[in-house]
Amino acid sequence: MTTATATTTSASFCRVEIKDEEANASFLLGKRDVLLNNYQSACDHLSKTCERIVKLSGNDTTPELAEPYFYYGQALLYLGLSEQQVFGSDIVKDTDNDENEIIEEENEEDDKPTGSTENGKGEQGEGEVDNEDDSIPDDENVNDLERAFEILECAHMIYSKMLDDYPNDSFIITRIADIHVMLADICNENGDHENALSNVLKAIELQETINEQQRYRLLAESYYKLGLIYELIGKFSEAMESFDKAIDAIHQAMKQLDGDDKESEREELKSLLPAMELKRNDAKASLADRHLIAQARKILMGTNNTTEAKTTEAPAKDITLNVRHKRPVTEIENDEEATKKVKNE
């Protein structure tokens, strides 16, 4: 039976470790593949990890599954969007800390991956037979984005339970916020902009509570995504505001990077500003175009439907004015008869 242990510090940092060697080996391989953008391979390894942990623990919501679910959902998301542009994916991908973790973990597990992978292949068939857990969807008709949504929901549930025990844990808060951002990507892709908006706003609310250096990088990504969503639903004023906040967050993040050794990171963040500023200007131009179109529509409506509009709003007044500015018909007829008599004479 595999067990999970939590390591804590004075800052209430909580991290659940995978004790089963085979599950941990496949998890490390899958995690590395996610960071290397090898999403199909990552899905294969992380699926085996989740199946084995569920099989050994008999529990599909054990804290030990939090990280495997997180990376598995992320891999499924990017696999599903591999041929399309992910909202904000080029803005900030927080992989620095994860890469450092992998380097440390691989140093400890250097001789294990190959053998563990072979064992993983042997267990796959057994896992498919024994594991009928709904939390790991294996219906062939379910696409990658649907699977990603279900897996990320499972991760969200586990991390939320952890947060009850460690309410100020910045790692858990960051993970939950990241899940909301990924759920927003899925909702956006499915055209569900309302829920996409809701998820990004929840992510921002959580990220605002993080008092760490990474806070502004995360906020920059989230506000950028928020601006894209507002732009999609035609709320250009809100989009401009969100893009401005994303730009401000980038500047704040750059200010925190002091020292010559941080120059490359500053340049990386600085390179993101032109794209953000371009989107902000696009939203501004769209807003201006909307005002012009509205004004033109009012002018056209007023020109083409003047009589109809006036008749609807004040028919009595319009009729009166028409009468006042026209000579009576009897007067016109009398004038015409008089003119004919003169000509005849």
Task: Look at the helices and sheets and give the structural class.
Answer: mainly alpha
Sum up the overall morphology in one term.
Answer: globular
Strand order of the largest sheet: 1-2
Low-confidence stretches: 1-13, 85-93, 111-135, 304-327
Number of strands: 2
| N- to C-terminal distance | 128 Å
How many alpha or pi helices?
Answer: 15
Residue-averaged pLDDT: 77
> Beta-sheet strand percentage?
under 5%
How many whole angstroms does the radius of gyration measure? 32 Å
Largest sheet: 2 strands, antiparallel
State the share of residues found in helices, binned by percent.
over 70%
Order of helices and strands: EEHHHHHHHHHHHHHHH
Word description of this protein:
This protein has helices spanning 21-35, 39-57, 66-80, 96-108, 113-130, 144-165, 170-189, 193-207, 215-232, 236-255, 263-270, 273-304, 306-313, 315-324, 329-344, and strands at 4-7, 15-18. With 345 residues, it is mainly α. β1 and β2 form a beta hairpin.
